[in-house]
## 1
Amino acid sequence: MSNASGVIPSNAMSTLAQQNPHFRKRSQIACSKCTLGKLCLVRNLDEDETEQFENIVNKSRPIHAGEHIFRIGDPLDCIAAVRAGCFKSYVIDKNGEEHVLGFYLPGEIIGFDAIDGKTHKANVIALDTSSVCGLSFDSVADMARQLPSLQEELFRVMSAQISELESNAADLSAEERIARLLCSLSTRIARRGYSPTEFNLSMSRRDIASNLRLATETISRVLARFQSAGLIRVNRKKVELVDLDKLRELAHRDTG
Amino acid sequence: MSNASGVIPSNAMSTLAQQNPHFRKRSQIACSKCTLGKLCLVRNLDEDETEQFENIVNKSRPIHAGEHIFRIGDPLDCIAAVRAGCFKSYVIDKNGEEHVLGFYLPGEIIGFDAIDGKTHKANVIALDTSSVCGLSFDSVADMARQLPSLQEELFRVMSAQISELESNAADLSAEERIARLLCSLSTRIARRGYSPTEFNLSMSRRDIASNLRLATETISRVLARFQSAGLIRVNRKKVELVDLDKLRELAHRDTG
DNA sequence: CGGCAAATTGACTCCACTCAAAGGAGGTGG
DNA sequence: CCACCTCCTTTGAGTGGAGTCAATTTGCCG
């Protein structure tokens, strides 16, 4: 499947964060007052530092489901911190097949893969109505040299992404992979104070399948199997994790 | 398979880079005179900066095949830059199965996954007689705040690792995965000035299989198939890439 | 209501795994 | 130096989990 609909070729995109329409400077909501609170890069910054940080943040306008914020080849103007909604990153292989690399929830940073080579290596598209904060990477790096705890946080988040990707490389069965994704979403959603056992799957079955290297039909079948085993209850996009412990057990094959 | 042979439990390991026997300060070979030259983190440092950098580097003694330099749970004293030889990183899952996360060649940095959580997330073992430079991560980070090009290089290398891991997540056939590994090794070996078409596989078939999420037998079979197709010539650890172009074609399914 | 895409369900296929066994290669001890 | 042992690798035969193909159902939106 190709993403047909007359998309803007990436080289038509602007090359500066300030010019990218998604990341234009807007009426600010101070980082210190952001609902994400301590989930973002400002985690360990004190009041003064947070204020400093706010100066390099561009809040975006609302982004509608289906809108791209990055495309492969875009120059690394900025990385993005998800404020609300949900994104997926993906590439298209030479057979025209889409491959979903990952999902991004509020508080997570998109674009670390773009630092090497200074161009984005994946397309990133909103799955829900969303918003992001754009961060000029150069400015963040500059500021990180002044603020040790910002640099530390950057290294930490990148390191966590490396760990996460390494552990995703494991050779798991379809059930294990799906259990793992459900648990991962649960944890990440819970961090923001929402229910860890009841949430919406913003992504389609096809997106899940692509991300987990499975067929769409397998997702349906395994979710049905989980449901009849009493592990979850699922209806379209709504899932309830009935037996989170057992799901976690299924998911965590690692760490001997 | 479990790694039996009376290994030192990780908590018996020392907690400071200076105490870790692998990374004791030794007779220095200056970074500026290192055979790796511009492959290491000092890539973009000028003469003075390189000299400064040398002060935080601990060269290791020779490390024999089968020796560990990190174990899961070890505190993040230092990360390691491979000087010579070859390493693999791996975890043991709860079934006692080893899973190989990656291979490391000279010039590559081991341990970025340890920054988050400040403990190593994988075991790292030498596959050949090897040596490494130990870098106290805290010192590197401190210095990165003084030297913009060091900071840039750190971000760049971590970013590259994220990209690499993302692209490894693709759903490839056994042939594609093996072709990709061969091409990857070829490129990384060529960077150091050695032949891109003739080299040694330091790792066993089993290690390759584990890393690529395949069975050992599949590695043998596919290599045999590649050989009879005239793509490679292989004898035990020795491989010659006869038709590198066709291998690359097989490997690069990505980037549409 | 009608049209379309997403999701589900069923039947069959195939790639890679498992099980099994036979060759090498390298190391050790007598 | 050779016999022996062990581990790694290769090769063969059969199995199974997930994919493919196809048909149907469901939900969504104009």
Note: Chain A is about 35% helix and 20% strand.
## 2
Amino acid sequence: MDKRNLIIEAMYKLLKEDKGAFCSVSEIAKEAGIGKGSIYYYFKSKDEIFDALVEHVYYEKIRHCKEVISCSHINALEKLQLLFSVYGQYIIDPSIDSYLHLQQNAAIHQKSLAQIHNLLSPIVAEIFNNGVNENLFICESPQETAELFLSSFCFLFDPGIFSWSDNQILKKLKALADLFESGLSAPKGSLQFLYQSFQKQI
Amino acid sequence: MDKRNLIIEAMYKLLKEDKGAFCSVSEIAKEAGIGKGSIYYYFKSKDEIFDALVEHVYYEKIRHCKEVISCSHINALEKLQLLFSVYGQYIIDPSIDSYLHLQQNAAIHQKSLAQIHNLLSPIVAEIFNNGVNENLFICESPQETAELFLSSFCFLFDPGIFSWSDNQILKKLKALADLFESGLSAPKGSLQFLYQSFQKQI
DNA sequence: TAATCATTCGACCACTGGTCGAACGGCTGT
DNA sequence: ACAGCCGTTCGACCAGTGGTCGAATGATTA
């Protein structure tokens, strides 16, 4: 049995059970059924456990995103919509977020945001590129534009940084759709999906 | 003597002296020359001190921004350029940033970014609104669009989160200018100032 | 003078992330 | 069979944390 994974899974289980605030090293050890000292035989620090956890959790999700995006014979707009729905269901993990949004975990929160940004931006850039080839978009710098697009999700829409009401989020999503429809010269209304799914759910 | 300010100033002093790691409540009390218990007479929690500190630090700076923007008889594009230069020289204070970007100060860093965002977004929104009235821009939701604009500066361009090369920053600034020129239907090249000043300095 | 009440304090609390030396148990070489 | 080794396991222990509490102070009021 791989003890490293045992520890990671124990922490993940605690986070999934919304025990974010009580996810101390002692608790992780208890959950894993091992002594606290042993934790530090496999990891240098608690941060290192969480780093491994984030990598473990996001690796599969990003791989899945890439797969979803690359396999189908759909256009750039449909891909973007698909990625967006996968992002909402998959990437945003409430169990991890409860831990990340604790004040004391701001550093690792920031790191996670940067990681999500770095992992997703090439994928979004690729979609923008597809769109240009399909004459759906006009975009000189797909990579940079993708980064600007993702900055909103990583910062403005992060519930650990801001606490917007549903209505406020809706207005921001609409503005985002408008901005990028114009900015990418995309067909009018083609980015409506950014707020329509959210509009339904509230 | 206002004890609340005394406490805030004590904490601010510790942070400025790069004592971020030793900025415990006990240390703050010692620095302020009062008992630890008294801290909790004026603040509910350490977080609340953080909040007050961030507000205290940025209040004056934002007020100055507002003044600069409101007094002159210049159009929206010129105001935006003016704000942008003030932002670069004034809001981004390297001596403050150096401690904000320490790992241990990630929490206050995040709060500062949110605070800057919240304080600046109405100002930028007002400028966008001016632009609409002056037939320079087309913008349905100035407030939300301003927030999207500022998200980039607070997140993507924060040197504490990402370490881009000068060349990468230049490309991102160009993409930002392109995006918002199209997104706001602003005159072609009217947002060049976003990257031109940076281009000169490298 | 007595009573009230905001204010001040530091010993104290439960808890944290992290350390350490003792101990266990399965190898090896002799 | 024995000794020595070493990877592994453990929980008592450590310094330090944010936060609590009841006692003490001193000014104001009745």
Note: Chain A has two domains: 1-44, 55-201.
